[in-house]
Amino acid sequence: GVRPVGSEMCIRDRQDSYVYEIQKMINNHSEQLLSISLNTIYTVTYKLEKENLISEYSKRVGKKRTRVYYHLEETGKEHLAKVMTNYNYMIDGVNRIINSLGGAQNE
User: Fold this and answer.
1) N or C: which end of the chain has fewer CB within 10 A?
2) What is the pTM (predicted TM-score) of this model?
3) How much is the pLDDT for 1?
4) Interatomic CA distance for residues 88 and 92, integer angstroms
């Protein structure tokens, strides 16, 4: 799926991030139009890691806390480019259908 995978990978492409931070960024950058649960983000994260598209590392924050950050690998950047191309084709196709049918109809 394009939605959670694409948005997560775009965030990771900009900076290494931890799961809760990714959730906050998706909410903020979508102006709360997208709400993706932490469970969904963890599921996607584990899938991307299993496919070697991202890697993880631990970083100490504060005196006792350790946070797991995820990094987008080169293979992940290549995959992201494909996901974004497919997403753009899909958006273009939907827009063409809507436009050919006379645009959005107001009732």
Assistant:
1) C
2) 0.75
3) 42
4) 6
